[in-house]
């Protein structure tokens, strides 16, 4: 699979993976509090500080989506990573994230990438740690998702610690 710019023609396919409010919060945090629709997401993609990526399958189906949000001083934030529910737990997400990191560090010369993940999301945390991210902050009971308060973990990776 090859990392490509997310094709806008795949917005509806991507959003079909978000089945409820909890899925939306796990995927996007507070980004789409006013509602998430193809039109809203298209506007989101047009932000100048966002690089959006995907992996497509052999049949041109969407396999993964993720973003890097540029911040100041050659830093970025990895956001909204999601893998097609039908193909999760096969290592595709890890490969996808690795490709995004390589692009960020090598093409854009970013020095540091940070991300937020929920504390109870062990598969995501394990994946990020295997790619060299370290946990730098814990925000206890940071966000209410459904009926539960969730911890937020902030993780970081520096270019000098790139794992291949």
For the biggest β-sheet, the strand order reads 1-2-3-4-5-7-6
First-residue to last-residue Cα separation: 16 Å
- Backbone CA Rg: 15 Å
Low-confidence stretches: none
What percent of residues are in strands?
35-45%
Q: Helix count, per DSSP? A: 5
Helix content: 25-40%
What order do the helices and strands follow? Answer: EHHHEEEHEHEE
Largest sheet geometry? 7 strands, mixed
Instruction: Using the alpha-carbon principal axes, give the shape.
Output: globular
Rounded mean pLDDT score: 89
How many E strands? 7
Q: Kindly name the structural category.
A: alpha+beta
Compact description:
The protein is an alpha+beta fold.
Describe this structure in words.
The protein is of the alpha+beta class and 164 residues long. The chain has five helices and seven strands, in the order βαααβββαβαββ. Strand 2 and strand 3 form a beta hairpin. It is globular, with a radius of gyration of 15 Å.
Tag the structure with descriptive keywords.
globular; single chain; 7-stranded mixed beta sheet; 7 strands; 164 residues; alpha+beta
Provide the fold topology.
Blueprint: E1 4-5, H1 11-15, H2 21-28, H3 38-45, E2 50-56, E3 62-71, E4 75-83, H4 92-107, E5 112-118, H5 122-130, E6 134-145, E7 148-158
Parallel strand pairs: 4-5
Antiparallel strand pairs: 1-2, 2-3, 3-4, 5-7, 6-7
């Amino acid at each position: 699979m090859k990392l490509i710019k997310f094709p806008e023609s795949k917005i509806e396919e991507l959003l079909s993976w978000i089945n409820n409010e909890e899925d939306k919060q796990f995927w996007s945090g507070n980004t789409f509090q006013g509602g998430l629709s193809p039109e809203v997401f298209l506007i989101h993609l047009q932000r100048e500080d966002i690089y959006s990526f995907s992996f497509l399958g052999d049949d041109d189906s969407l396999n993964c989506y993720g973003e890097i949000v540029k911040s100041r001083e050659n830093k970025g934030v990895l956001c909204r990573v999601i893998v097609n529910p039908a193909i999760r737990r096969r290592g595709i997400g890890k490969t996808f994230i690795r490709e995004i990191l390589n692009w960020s560090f090598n093409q854009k010369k970013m020095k540091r990438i940070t991300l937020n993940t929920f504390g109870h999301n062990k598969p995501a945390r394990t994946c990020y740690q295997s790619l060299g991210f370290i946990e730098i902050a814990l925000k206890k009971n940071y966000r209410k998702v459904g009926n539960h308060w969730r911890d937020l973990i902030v993780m970081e990776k520096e270019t000098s610690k790139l794992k291949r």
